[in-house]
Amino acid sequence: MSKPHAPAPVPRPLLKQQSWSPDAIRDEAWQRRKGSHAAVGLCRSKSVSDDDLEELKACVELGLGFDPESSDVDPRLSDTIPALGFYCAVNKQYSNSLSRSSSSSSIVSDSDAAGSSNNNLFCPGDDAEMVKTRLKQWAQVVACAVRSSSR
């Protein structure tokens, strides 16, 4: 009698080589962002992440100009570059302060106007870490605005 044949071994799936490429870091960051946005759904919060600021800085460094004087930013562009609204608000305020005299009274009035606007950086219930993060982000956006206006 013939021997029963043993089933053929199941072939192992081919694994992709895990080599480093310059795109690997970007791809990993994209997957993280995609995953975090998928959990939130299609709604986007008004907060700006460090990744959003990096995208904005890269656009400014590439020479893309955004008109801070325009009253409304294209929503598709705003969805693509979430920090753009923040950038336009800061850049507009910076441009206004340059057009005025640089006396200390105008600086005080600028800070008063910023505190009374709807785009406050802080809310009364914010914890210290949130305040620190928002200040850091604000400083980065101001640096972008100054850099782009000096070109």
UniProtKB/TrEMBL annotation:
Q: Which InterPro entries match?
A: DUF1685 (IPR012881)
An example of a Pfam family matching this protein is DUF1685
The residue ranges flagged as biased composition, category Pro residues, are: 1-12
Spans annotated as Disordered? 1-36
The protein, known as:
Uncharacterized protein
Organism in which the protein naturally occurs: Ziziphus jujuba var. spinosa
